[in-house]
Amino acid sequence: MTDQATVTNIEGSSKFESCPICGPWIDHCESMSGRPRGFCSVHGCLNFAEVGAHVIVTNSRFLFDLRAYVVPMCREHNGKHGESFTLWEGCLPVLAHHEPHAEKLNPLAGLLFR
Known about the structure:
The protein starts with 5 loop residues before the first strand and ends with a helix. It has a five-stranded antiparallel sheet with strand order 4-1-2-3-5. It contains four helices and five strands; from the N terminus they run βαββαββαα. The protein has 114 residues and is an alpha+beta fold. It is globular and about 30 Å long.
């Protein structure tokens, strides 16, 4: 079984400029994962990860988990709102749980995961 996840960029998440605890979302990714930023999380992309992108994981072991997650991403892929991407093997999205607006990013999450 592969450890690759497919994610979809969440549209409208740019209005949440930073995590209230960690600061910029890329810092949130580093803090929550314990891993330094590196390349973009999108499989095959060798661009440097500059932002923490809000995504919903749409397959893998996260199946049916509609909560908002954050992954390190380059600006080019982060700008492709609503598109889906396969992540590098071993890339683990981190929950955007510090975010007080996590359920507003995906209203279904509030109904399914209380």
